[in-house]
Structure formats: structure tokens, C-alpha cells
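Posted in: Structural Biology > Protein-Ligand Complexes

Title: Requesting predicted complex, S-adenosylmethionine in pocket

I'd be grateful if someone could produce the C-alpha cells for the following input. Sequence and ligand are given below.
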Amino acid sequence: MVQNVIIKEYSRLAKIYDSRWKSYSEASTREILSRLSLKNSDKILDVGCGTGFLLYHLSERYPDVQLSGVDPVKAMLDVARKKLPVRVDLREGWAEQLPFADHNFNLVLSNSVFHYIRDIQTALKEARRVLRPGGQLVITDWCYNCFTTRLTDLFLRYFDQAHFRSYSVNKIRALLEENYFSVLQIDRYMINRWWGMMTIKAQRKG
Ligand SMILES: C[S@@+](CC[C@H](N)C(=O)[O-])C[C@H]1O[C@@H](n2cnc3c(N)ncnc32)[C@H](O)[C@@H]1O
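-- Reply #1 --
Done. Output follows.
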């Protein structure tokens, strides 16, 4: 079962994740933060928060916003707990079944997680459910339009059972629109010579 593969893979990686992916995490987090303008009253969920890299930077920069994170891998959350203030609400769970009430957040973020999600339709429905009307979903992930990222994606489809697929700009736009989001902005960029990323900002319709 694929859920076991992801849990096994990230339980194994948890202790070394921050050092192994330091420059990737720093660069992608920088890109995300540069696209956010937050208010003190904001309530934010990070889906697939991993070791809490993005939540840590949000908590440092915005001490008054309410922060939550969800990830299916306890070992990743254990690392996150050690670096985050206690006010950050961390829960074990999957993007496809978020352990939060309806209309709970005004911003849902996710960095480098969507390429693992098998059932993206359900994950988008869940993101929409936990968002307040008019709330925003900001997804950052590998961009299939980028040649080097596409090579990585195709390689991992065969050699890494945890990996599922990355999306092109047009595909992710269509999926969001199908799930009652208005796409506000899609930016493509490289975080180094290899990794082509995209950040998509979408707003819950209604
Ligand atoms: C590459 S790491 C990224 C972690 C974190 N977002 C960051 O940027 O440092 C991918 C994370 O996605 C989580 N993940 C994988 N599949 C998931 C799913 N279906 N729902 C939620 N999280 C998932 C993994 O447990 C892992 O922590």
C-alpha cells in the first residue's frame, strides 16, 4: 500500500532530512515567503509540513498568526516539534483526509508535497473544505514544464515507489478550476540549475 511506502521512506529520512535538503528547503521557502502578505489575524495550515521548515520561518516572521501543520509521518513531526514554538498545532494526517474542521483556515500552503499525492482530486476538495470562503490555497511544487524537472519526474516514476507525478502549469490550473478555485497567479522559477518549481496561488470560490 502506497501510504506505507511514504511512511517508511520519510521515517527513514526524518533525522537527516533538514541537512540533506537544506539548500532546497531554504530556496523554496524564500520563494514562498516572497509571495505571501500575511495579517496577524491569519490562520494558516501547512499540508505535508514535514520537519516544519516553512512553519518555522512563518513563526519567526509572523509571531501572531495561528499556525497548523499536518503530515502523515510521525518521525517528521517529531523533528518539527523540536524546532517550533508550542503554539504551532501539529497533527498526523494526510492531505486526502485533513484532520481539521470545515472553514477553519484562511490560507492553506503546501511545499513539495503534491508530487506524492495519489488522489489529487480528494486533496483539493479537502483543502477547499478547510478553507473559509474566499480563502487562499498556495501550492509550491516541481513543475513538469521544466525539462530537468520532467527528467527527474520520469526517472522517479520508475525508481521511487513513493513518488507519483509532477504537474504542468496547465494541468494544475485545470485541476484547481474543476475543484472550484479561481487561479490568481502561477509563477514558474528555478531554485537552482536543476529544480524547476512553480507556485500557484488560488482562491476558494464562494
Ligand atoms: C519533500 S517533503 C516536504 C516537506 C515540507 N513541506 C518541506 O517543504 O520541507 C514531502 C512531505 O510530504 C509528506 N507527504 C507525502 N504524501 C503526503 C500526503 N498524501 N498528504 C500529506 N503529506 C504527504 C511526507 O510525509 C513529507 O513530509
